[in-house]
Amino acid sequence: MTFVQLMETGWNTVGLAPWVVFLPIAGLLANLMFGKYLGERGAGVLASLASGLAFGVSILMALNLASYPEPQVLKLAQWISVGSFNAGWDFRVDTLSVTMMLVVSGVGTLIHIFAIGYMHSDVRLNGDPGRYSRFFVFFNLFIAAMMVLVTANNYLMLFVGWEGVGLCSYLLIGFWFEKGKDGIGNALAAKKAFITNRIGDFGLLLAIFLLFWNFGSLDFDAVFQKAHEVAKVMPGVIQAITLLMLLGVAGKSAQLPLFVWLPDAMAGPTPVSALIHAATMVTAGVYLIARSAGLYVLDVSAQLVVTWVGALTALFAATIALGQNDIKKVLAYSTISQLGYMVAAVGMGAFVAGMFHLVTHAFFKALLFLAAGSVILGMERRALEAGSHHGETHTDGHAIDPQDMRNMGGLRSRMPLTFWVFLAGALALAGVAPLAGFFSKDEILAYALVHQPAVLVVLALTALLTAFYVARQVSLVFLGNPRSLEAHTAVESKPVLTIPLVILALLSIFGGLVNLPGIHFLETWLEHSVQAAEKGEFILGVVLVSLMLALSGLLLGWWVYGRRPVSSAASADPLQAVLGRLFVAVQNKWWVDEFYDWLIIKPFQRLSHFFAKAVDEMVIDGVVNGLGYAAIFAASLIRFLHGGLARSYALMMVVGVTIILAYLILR
Amino acid sequence: MEPVINYLLLSGVLFSLGVLGVLMRRNAIVVFMSLELMFNAANLAFITFARMYSALDGQVFVFFVMAVAAAEVAVGLALMVAIFRSRRSIDMDQLNSMKG
Questions:
Q1: A198 touches chain B (CB under 8 A)
Q2: Considering the domain boundaries, does residue A648 fall inside one?
Q3: How close B54 gets to chain A, by Cα (Å)?
Q4: CATH tag, B26-92
Q5: Which end of chain B is more exposed for a tag (fewer CB within 10 A), N or C?
Q6: How much is the pTM?
Q7: Domain contains A551
Q8: What angle do the packed helices A95-125 and A132-151 form, to 10 degrees?
């Protein structure tokens, strides 16, 4: 940037954009090399600082955009240049990418700080304190990869970030790869997430190939400029691209039918669930659709498919969340459900509403997960102390599952701060006015009423279920009496854990202000980068209905679970008496995993078995062994020549010499 | 002086006897002696030609052949002793471990 440009544009901060990637990378390199010598506090603070500085850079860019909101591109490096095709490492700084940057680094930093305290206990419980700095290396790597994703100016760089966050997700789900069910459970969960995401990435990659083939460029601006033209000539291409992209979104954002990996991803440490599997990475799909708005608005049927995938996912996951007993699994299904909300929103064309819900959801879901982490730490305190006394972990024979809500109860008086922040997050999730979730959810519902009334019904039903399972969770965890010794002896977590919780709670309460009806700050902000951003509507009827649904869901949940709290860990779920077999189905997640096992995994394994036995062992080994046997057979034909008699060799030599001499003489 | 051809004939006969000895005898010592016979047949031919052409090259060569033959016998007899120690026999036909 020359001085003249600087004078023209004021203090242009676009030049700082690469630092949102480089700062976390610097943090991870430092931790990689010196993490062992820094000590826990040093490693954690370093990583948090790297993420926090990236947040600072994002704020500077946001301030700059506030006065000069047009998209800017910084060309950092040439990457691929073949013929007329160019794909470089360009940083796109516009209101949409900066919004994502702020969420990723802001919420990310808070979760980093929380993890300083959480991982301190976690590495001791799992008996390997040496792994502490590795966690923060992965965490910073994730921030860097996510920043590459959101700052990309073309689909190829976006894909680089897309794969990078997938890798970090895999690494962090399998952080305790040698633990879990049968000592392999966590590794299997990581593998499941990775492979399921590959299916989605396959779709995204095909979409990128189609874009390249038909547009000749992968730069966002070039593609969207040409999109109208292409849509007129070949509408099928746009449809194929958008639907293939949806497959990628379904993988990354855990939508039907590829959502199965996200609940299993809870095998990772809780800060991972908060950062990657709730607040940021899984929203990449929503971001992708919002970024590709210029393509989606051109194909109504693709939009319809996206909308219904999102809406059905929202409802489906919400039903499953009703019957889960693991505190993190409930939140995982809730995340899938809320992601469904966002996907439905961006599918309908309500890109701003979708992004709004993405932001508020990042606040309250990160809060809920971190509060759940605080609860889990409280439950694990006994095991931790027993472990540190005896120098080993999980040795007391009656080790209970510290994440099972049936073992909790009565934590309200024991962990008051955690209770209040969890309640704030829960009410925001349920959509109670005037918390963050209320405004963003209502904007989606209002948009649905105008554009897709059928979707409204599904989403409203989801809202009711959401409020219900939220009430169930709060009741089971915090109300009543403790149902285990662990819950009885739980105490409040340390400040390093609770301070991020309080900040996130404040964000969850006041986060709705960013797009308050009437002011619509986020909308005027985003309309510079999202095409076809429409003014959100504030429909009083929808607001009242949704508020009524949220409150009645909460009330119903309290009536079932809170009024007469479950007395012991072994007693049946009160909902089972009401729903009967339906509850069993919900508890078993509608047997989706079993269905996939039967439909895909088992046939695939049988096919592999067939190839291993019939093709590999018979055909390929047959050819190889056959060549060997052929050589042996050929050798047996002339074996008599080597009888082992030295005299016969001598005779052959004599005969040979005679023949050669005869030839030389007689020729 | 005898014509050259007689010396060469003697040399050829000696050489053939040596070859036959190598091929037909089973006792390794006799095989060795037959080998020596072949060497000396060659030596005789060398000397014959040296005289015939009045050149010393052939005579010098004979000394080399004798030295090499002495070394060869030393190695060969050592081998023979080693084989006899392990096999209790120096019958050539029983040394068939090279059989394919």
A1: no
A2: yes
A3: 26
A4: 1.10.287.3510
A5: N
A6: 0.81
A7: no
A8: 170
